Amino acid sequence: MVELDRSLICKGCWSQMHMPIPIRGPLSLPFKLVGITTSKMNPNICTICERAFARVKKTKQITVQTTILFADIRGYTRLSERVGAAEVASLLSVFHDECATAIWAQDGIVNKAMGDGLMAIFNFPIPIDDHPREALVAALSIQEQCTRNLAKLKDELELTGSEIGVGVGLHSGEVAIGEFSGFATDFTAIGSVVNQAARLESSAAAGEILMTEEVYRHARDLCGAAEHRSISIKGFSDAVDVFALRN
Amino acid sequence: MVELDRSLICKGCWSQMHMPIPIRGPLSLPFKLVGITTSKMNPNICTICERAFARVKKTKQITVQTTILFADIRGYTRLSERVGAAEVASLLSVFHDECATAIWAQDGIVNKAMGDGLMAIFNFPIPIDDHPREALVAALSIQEQCTRNLAKLKDELELTGSEIGVGVGLHSGEVAIGEFSGFATDFTAIGSVVNQAARLESSAAAGEILMTEEVYRHARDLCGAAEHRSISIKGFSDAVDVFALRN
Questions:
Q1: Do residues B107 and B181 both lie within one domain?
Q2: pLDDT tens digit string along B45-59?
Q3: Do A183 and B89 touch (CB under 8 A)?
Q4: In chain B, what residues touch A81 (CB-CB under 8 Å)?
């Protein structure tokens, strides 16, 4: 497992506001007392980044160039019909932990996690020079680690029959970031780029990464065996050019 | 809009541990200072319920009878290809706020929200006598409020062509509740009942509520015009009997 570099100050607050908010070490104690701790989205950002977007940014939404990654477990529903809750829990735990580790190692954040799926954002709130490339590095690491650890788990739990694998979708471009409801105070990203990344993930087979041209052109050297396809996706009128990488 | 009854103590901690945790009024101030505030899942529970499941329950997961509700916006992807981020943000805001209000009014919690969708749990951590019925009451209220407010918004934003509506799926039964990853400290529910509710929502048309027999039999009197169907859903080998209510 990749060892995460643990920052003493919040990388998000530093990048977005040039404000040093201690999140580790003795200086972080008074902050912890008033509820400012590390964020569950990324342990190098703090709960100010996570829950005070509108107050920090002084606006409801901003436009940012990002890369969006979606990942989920293929065959999850079918599998969880056949095995017990404890086995499903182990499977989810391996998946979520491996994904988070890979995403955090490239300074991305796990923005949303729901059941057997998650959505990550690269380039906000921590700036990343070449975010499409870093997101693909994370996707490759997710596939490598999940393939290995899910196969090990499958043996341990003596699951036979169905294949367990992960599907990943990646797209890069302009998104709107903000808080999009009155009650939930976590920020998120919306827009066409987000929807398209989600649809690519739904189209990805077990062990597959599907990415758009916008991601591919930043990381050709990592995509030796990528296959070029044109696919039609739900909700989009035109066919989309994608590049597929198999593990 | 339904006015929510605002509790002075956390209804979750009271039900689960018989511990009175003040969340409103002067007694709540010292708790707020150490980061214990109202939860974003439901304003009548606190962040102890939300983020300290394993510590409170002293176990990784528990089995609970619940009703699970999924809701999302039909045609969201297609619509967000045609309109700007500000319009999409208004749409999401109306949707999430109306859903939360309806769910909270019946003591349910908004456990997960992701893009144009959400998942609610009824009967944990706040116990509800007849949770399938209360969940259906919430679903009916979601459909009524969303239909009215989304139509109003559609006129204001001068959106023409595509229909905007909400699809809802409901199923009731035993789920596993716990924290299913090392990093995310919010609890969630997993299991076949959750997957089936999610699949029913995907199969629901705009303005439709799809529920299983397990929900229907608790609320026949609310389902005057329900249509009985047998549908096949992804990941489940057998066809599922459902009852459909149109707005």
A1: yes
A2: 998 988 888 878 888
A3: no
A4: 192, 195, 235-237
Beta strand B165-178 with B208-212: parallel, antiparallel or unpaired?
parallel
Contact predicate B201/B211, CB 8 Å: no
Which range marks the domain in which residue A96 is found? Answer: 61-246
Distance from CA of B97 to the nearest CA of A (A): 6
Q: Does B96 touch chain A (CB under 8 A)?
A: yes
Task: State whether residue B113 sits within 8 Å of chain A by CB.
Answer: yes
CA distance A93 to chain B (A): 4
pLDDT digits 0-9 by tens, A8-66? 999 999 999 899 999 999 999 888 888 888 998 999 999 998 888 887 888 888 999 99
Residue A3, in any domain of the structure: no
3 state DSSP class of A239: coil
Pair A114, A203 in one domain: yes
pLDDT at A180 over 90: no
Q: Of the candidates B134, B132, B125, B128, which has an alpha carbon nearest to the alpha carbon of residue B187? A: B125
Distance from CA of B79 to the nearest CA of A (A): 8
Residue closest to A7 by CA, chosen among A104, A128, A102 = A104
Asked if the structure places residue A4 within a domain, the reply is: no
Residue A1 lies in a domain: no
